[in-house]
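Lay summary. Proteins are chains of building blocks that fold into shapes, and those shapes determine what they do. In this project we predict the shape from the chain. Here is one chain we studied, written as its sequence of building blocks.
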Amino acid sequence: QLVESGGGLVQPGGSLRLSCTAPFFTLSSYWIYWIRQAPGKGFEWVSSIGSGGQTTYYADSVKGRFTISRDKVKNTANLQMNILEPEDTALYYCATLIEVDSLTYAVWGQGTQVTVS
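And here is the predicted shape, written in a compact code that computers can read:
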């Protein structure tokens, strides 16, 4: 299970920092994905970070505004979101893929709401 936090209501142009933690395993061993779902829309991949923390990817819609990172001491993966726009309003999830006995499982958090208004 993953647990997200840090969502909230912010004005356009503002910032929020989302965090994702795993109470029962070490996040740094896995790729972490941030995915969002806006009201009435499908899921949209936002950003990814590799297990080493050196490799990062961003959707074009957030590139230059969002920064993904890890804190290995705190066992968190973070998404710093700056210059927020109303179009960023969504439920934000962190997720990872875990392989057990040659089977791959997708593990998601419950999501944290971000509202830009």
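What the prediction tells us: The first strand starts at residue 3 and ends at 5.
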